Amino acid sequence: MQEISAKVVAELRKKTDAGIMECKNALKECKGNIEEAIEYLRKKGLSKAAKKADRIAAEGVIAMKVADDFTKATLVEVNSETDFVAKNEDFQEIVANILDLAFKRSLNTTESLMQLSVNGESFEDYLKQKIAIIGENIVIRRVATITCKPNQLINGYLHHNKKVGAITLLSVEKDENVSKLNEFSKLLSMHIASMKPKFLSYKELDKDFVAKERVAIAAELEKENEELARLKKPLHRIPEFVSRSELSESVLKAKEEELRATLKREGKPEAIWDKIIPGQLDRFILDNTILDQRLTLLAQLYALDDKKTITQVLNEKSKELNDNIQVVSFINFELGEGIEKKVDNFAEEVAAQMK
Predict the structure, then answer these.
(1) What is the pLDDT of residues 265-294, one digit of tens each?
(2) Under 8 Å between Cβ of 309 and 300
(3) Burial 152-172 (b: 16+ CB within 10 A, else e)
(4) For the chain, how are helix, strand and coil distributed in percent, rounded to 5?
(5) Cα–Cα distance between 189 and 204 in angstroms, integer?
(6) Which of 56, 64, 81, 278 has the fewest Cβ atoms nearer than 10 Å?
(7) DSSP label at residue 160
(8) In sequence order, what E strands does the chain have?
(9) What is the pTM of this model?
(10) 11: exposed, middle or buried (C-beta count within 10 Å: 0-12, 13-18, 19+)?
């Protein structure tokens, strides 16, 4: 049998990142031909990768890239099976390549990523080889890019643990204010990463969905009231409405008349009613928009100042800059969101591998 030198093994290992014994065996199988050995390992790697494809990958990282001029931003989620591998240099290299390609090509689907190439080979083959080397299933779960139009800017926030990230696109009317809102967009992204809104405003909520959620929220609060009553604590008020979409002009007008009647009954001077009622109406709206506060960005209380909603914060910033600042869109990624992670019995897994 042909003797395989350590130098050739080292060269093959450098080109493929495969293990020493795998390289040595491949060279023996291919009679010392490095190019054939590369293809041999590639095919072997593809086979290994395919076997790993059914493993659940719920660990990994969120990665983000924002253009220096804040005109484009990309978020990606890349999953691994274990947190240990997520810290591996090879895994981090894969993430860096994915993020770089997605940002440069302004990608928004994993399918479009797979059609690209890395170092002269298809990205799909590159990924499968890396899976074989690392020894775990790796899934590129999500890719999202937002590119600005005129009078827009984008910035983002990536938490230090790389498990949650968000990007926020803002628009202004005055071009000179674009560069003044980079930090503000980052802070809004931090809020989004923390509070996890699903929609921009109540206008995006389906009428039937709101009706179903109203019933569910009422049941939830009534259940909590049972425990509060047992503890002799103040009970939740069960709201009549749960979204701004239900607060029509007639509803708000009726509430205003009710507030006026109450102030009159209490003997409050009519001259101060107009100073009291707006605050009371705001409170009524806040109490009857629980669903909006849970799911929509503009109705949420700002994480950095919970006395104000995001809408109020935007209005204040607009007034400060004498402009009209709007959130156009946002994207929020939370690592493993929606993935049902399989919990294996460790002893059984070890026993299975020993067979």
Answers:
(1) 999 999 999 999 999 999 999 999 999 999
(2) yes
(3) bbbbbbbbeebbbbbbbbbbb
(4) 55, 20, 30
(5) 20
(6) 278
(7) T
(8) 59-66, 72-80, 117-118, 121-122, 139-147, 152-158, 164-171, 301-302, 305-309, 326-334
(9) 0.77
(10) middle
